[in-house]
Amino acid sequence: MRTRAKTWWVYILRCADGTLYCGSTNDVEARVAAHNAGKGARYTRGRGPVRLVMALRAEDRCDALRAEARIKRLPRDAKLHLVRTAKKRLMGQEH
Description:
Elements (H helix, E strand, L loop, with lengths): L7 E7 L5 E6 L2 H9 L14 E8 L2 H13 L2 H15 L5
Antiparallel strand pairs: 1-2, 1-3
């Protein structure tokens, strides 16, 4: 019997101190809750509450991890641009 493959995501959070955090998961809602409960990444502990500002679907876990690594190497301005672009696409405003 085949099990259904889980959808993987790469996401960006805005922490209460204004900093950004990027991660990957197969359950965005649960991961954000874990970050807000202080059980997420070390970086977000003490910087909460966090707010999800972007989540992009990945092909699989490997793709999500690669995208996460690429995003983490970007400067802050580029990350903010990525968030704005993703929101425009989601809202159908990109032409």
